[in-house]
Design brief:
The chain has 245 residues and is α/β, with parallel strands linked by helices. The protein is built from seven helices and eight strands, in the order H-H-E-H-E-H-E-H-H-E-E-E-H-E-E. It has a single domain, classed as Rossmann fold. The two termini are 20 Å apart. Bound molecules: iron/sulfur cluster.
Length: 245
């Protein structure tokens, strides 16, 4: 665990750095101990391209919930072909999935926030913990202007729950900057982005948004509390910067 002052100094230094410079720091500092945790959304594809240019041996992890859109699986194959990477996919514990759906149904998430959070815990949060047990740092595509708790993230945080650095090179970027990078570098991306899906997740829990709507309005759209629109992967307790599972 880094000293608090050392982390503050590091963040002060990286605050004006480009995403590529932040990734370079992560690579130099952590080597193969750092991995991009990718949902294969637009931000993650930009990061994959940047990271690959630093090291073609970049580690790329994903959480395959087994409920992803077909288009996302297509992008897995496209990214593998384009970058020559091996995606480290982490799956839910199928005994847990079986017990959950036998008790609450396959589409339990539509029947209350507690059910939805249980599904995210089984299909995302538990596999994330398993994935991160093998790294010293994980790279995320979080941006401050995505709202919710994300407005206060640091570029480098200490994720005490996973005993690893949590690195967000795009913290200062806007959606338009990400889009510009994707276009300028011909980075492959999920075709759903062109059909009104700015934020991608599991197929049954994501829909297109209207122009001008919040970019996460299409996630769990049937829930009324906008502050509940997180799956547990990136919930940060302000005092400790520890993800709350
Ligand atoms: S996003 Fe939906 S389907 Fe995916 S893990 Fe969460 S509740 Fe389950």
């Amino acid at each position: 665990m880094p000293a608090e002052q050392a982390l503050a100094d590091l963040n002060e230094r990286l605050e004006s750095a480009s995403p590529q410079e932040v990734l370079r720091w992560a690579h130099d500092e952590l080597g193969s101990g750092v991995a991009l945790m990718s949902s294969f959304g637009l931000e993650d594809m930009a990061l994959l391209d940047m990271l690959w240019r630093i090291t073609p041996q970049a580690r790329v992890m994903t959480l395959d919930t087994q409920r992803l859109p077909t288009e996302t699986y297509t992008l897995f194959d496209q990214a593998t072909a384009r970058y020559g990477i091996k995606i480290e996919a982490f799956y839910p514990n199928m005994d847990d999935v079986r017990a959950m759906v036998e008790e609450r149904g396959y589409n339990l998430f539509y029947k209350g926030v507690d059910n939805r959070k249980m599904c995210c815990a089984v299909r995302k949060v538990e596999p994330l913990g398993r994935a991160l047990s093998s790294v010293d740092g994980w790279i995320t595509g979080l941006r401050r202007d995505q709202g919710m708790d994300r407005g206060s993230i640091d570029i480098v945080e200490w994720d005490a729950a996973h005993d690893a650095y949590k690195i967000s090179p795009l913290a200062n970027w806007t959606f338009d900057q990400v889009r510009e990078y994707i276009d300028e570098n011909s980075v492959p991306y999920n075709e759903l982005h062109d059909k009104g899906f700015p934020s991608l997740g599991c197929a049954p829990c994501t829909r297109a948004v209207q122009p001008g709507e919040d970019i996460r309005a299409g996630r769990w759209w049937w829930e009324s509390d906008p502050n509940a629109k997180e799956c547990g992967l990136h919930i940060v307790e302000a005092a400790t910067h520890t993800p709350a599972v």
